[in-house]
């Protein structure tokens, strides 16, 4: 398989990209809000606080959600709370959830948050940005910022010319959607995007972070993945840069497999050959997810259920 279902969405690189390049994210997707912020003052990710207000959230395909405290550029002794969601699929209750979180932030902190969403799905007819409720004596209307990645497909040249890391992120996302049924073409685009990182002069850490995102998004069948790594290794030799190597990736993957199997054996006893084979086929991202999930396992049934849900 080469579609999105192989990815560990709940542990997606969107979280890393948002945290590492939050200013660039706001400037790229929501420039009007970004213009309000004093970026010289450190901002704070309020993960624990956000968990407290999202305790009853329905589990849907969300690549990331963040609550961030930033300072107004105007110099006011006032903080601005920004709630940002990266939504992976259409969801009927999504506008209501955006409103609910916004209200809970106001209720808890007495600050009106700016709520924004990045929509990553492929449904061109789904682009929510309001929640409303009208009755005889009460009218409620809530509007939130919303951008649809699918709409960037008409701005490819603009994305290619941009030095903002999120231009690369959006390109990777679009190329992934465009090549769901054409893995060979996906391999070409994947290599092209990785090469662009070097050509545009990104630093080592940026290349590593963006590589992780591209690799997570643009999954390839094993044979094409091996071909990609051969081409990529040649590229690094030509550039005399070895930020990421196939040996590093293979080493990480083998270590993760051994570690997970060792943990499972210690926790549940001997792992069956069938389950071991399934675990051996998991991606590095899913092995990391299993390593965390198994801490809550109490029987082999828990492992079987997890593997069924995540194959």
Instruction: Give helix % range.
Output: 40-55%
Average pLDDT metric: 84
Question: What's the number of helices?
Answer: 14
Number of domains: 3
Principal-axes geometry comes out as globular
Largest sheet: 5 strands, mixed
Which strand-content bin applies to the residues?
5-15%
Low-confidence stretches: 1-11
Structural class: alpha/beta
Strands in their spatial order, largest beta sheet: 1-2-3-4-7
The number of distinct β-strands equals 7
Order of helices and strands: HHHEHEEHEEEEHHHHHHHHH
Through-space gap between termini: 10 Å
What are its keywords?
3 domains, globular, alpha/beta, 5-stranded mixed beta sheet, 52% helix, disordered N terminus, 311 residues, two-stranded antiparallel ribbon
What does this structure look like?
By secondary structure, the chain is of the alpha/beta class. It has 3 domains: 4-151, no CATH class; 155-244, no CATH class; 248-310, no CATH class. The chain is built from 14 helices and 7 strands. The strands form 2 sheets. It has a 5-stranded mixed beta sheet. A two-stranded antiparallel sheet has the order 5-6. A hairpin with a 7-residue loop joins strand 2 (62-71) and strand 3 (79-87). The protein is globular. 28% of the residues are buried. Mean pLDDT is 84; it is low at 1-11.
């Amino acid at each position: 398989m080469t579609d999105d279902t192989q990815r560990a969405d709940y542990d997606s690189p969107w979280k890393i990209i948002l945290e590492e390049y939050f200013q660039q994210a706001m400037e790229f997707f929501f420039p009007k809000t970004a213009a309000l912020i004093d970026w010289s003052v450190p901002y704070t990710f309020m993960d624990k606080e956000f968990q407290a207000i999202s305790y009853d959230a329905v589990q849907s395909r969300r690549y990331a959600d963040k609550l961030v405290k930033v300072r107004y550029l105007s110099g006011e002794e006032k903080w601005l709370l920004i709630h940002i969601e990266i939504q992976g699929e259409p969801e009927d209750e999504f506008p209501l959830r955006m409103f609910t979180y916004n209200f809970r932030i106001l209720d808890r902190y007495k600050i009106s948050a700016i709520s924004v969403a990045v929509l990553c799905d492929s449904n061109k007819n789904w682009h929510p940005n309001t929640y409303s409720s009208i009755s005889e004596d009460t009218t409620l209307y809530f509007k939130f910022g919303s951008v649809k990645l699918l709409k960037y497909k008409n701005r490819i040249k603009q994305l290619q010319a941009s030095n903002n890391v999120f231009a690369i992120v959006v390109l990777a996302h679009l190329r992934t959607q465009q090549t769901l049924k054409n893995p060979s073409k996906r391999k070409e685009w994947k290599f092209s995007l990785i090469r662009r990182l070097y050509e545009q002069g990104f630093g080592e850490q940026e290349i590593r972070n963006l590589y992780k995102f591209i690799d997570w998004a643009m999954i390839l069948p094993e044979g094409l993945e091996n071909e990609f790594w051969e081409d990529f290794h040649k590229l690094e030799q030509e550039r005399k840069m070895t930020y990421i190597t196939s040996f590093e990736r293979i080493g990480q993957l083998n270590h993760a497999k051994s570690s997970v199997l060792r943990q499972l054996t210690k926790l549940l006893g001997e792992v069956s050959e069938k389950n071991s084979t399934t675990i051996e086929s998991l991606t590095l991202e899913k092995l990391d997810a299993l390593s965390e999930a198994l801490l809550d396992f109490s029987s082999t049934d828990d492992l079987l259920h997890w593997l069924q849900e995540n194959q």
